[in-house]
Amino acid sequence: MSAGAHRRSTVAVKDALRELRNQLSLLNHQVSSQLALKDVDLDCLELIARHGPLSPSALARRAGLHPATMTGILDRLQKGGWIVRERDPEAADRRSIAVRAVRGRNAELFRLYAGMNSAMDELCARYTEDELALIAGFLRRATSAGHDATGTLTGG
After folding, report:
1. Is 37 left (phi over 0), alpha (psi -120 to 50) or beta?
2. Range from 8-17, 36-45, 95-104, 110-119 carrying the lowest mean pLDDT
3. pLDDT in tens, 4-39
4. Within a 13 Å sphere around the CA of 113, how many CA atoms are in the beta-carbon half?
5. How much is the pTM?
6. DSSP symbol at 97
7. Which of 9, 81, 102, 140 has the most CB atoms around it within 10 Å of its CB?
């Protein structure tokens, strides 16, 4: 492949990733609206479900948010029955709090994402295991690059 063709292909991949990011942002906005949450609340709920239980400060670091902002987000999520705040039994400081997602609420999220999940299943069915492994590897490395770029911007 010539340098020009490689450059065009690279631009096409970046463009496709930007379009995907925009579309997923729109989907997440619709989901958060139907749940009466803010987009950032949904993002934090995903982080808690995926990596929790977490302390509020650890969640703020992962989300790239100020701890004071995190307090409002956690208040909304707790009021909506999405999370619980509990004493962290493993912490040296007995005042430490851990935040965890309420498992019973997952069905609502799954229902709202069902259309996208079905479409992804159909899309993935068209690829071989080797192709899917290549795509997954690329997406993991792209995610890592995004993480590193975010850290650079936030000084982390």
Report:
1. beta
2. 95-104
3. 999 999 999 999 999 999 999 999 999 999 999 999
4. 15
5. 0.82
6. E
7. 102
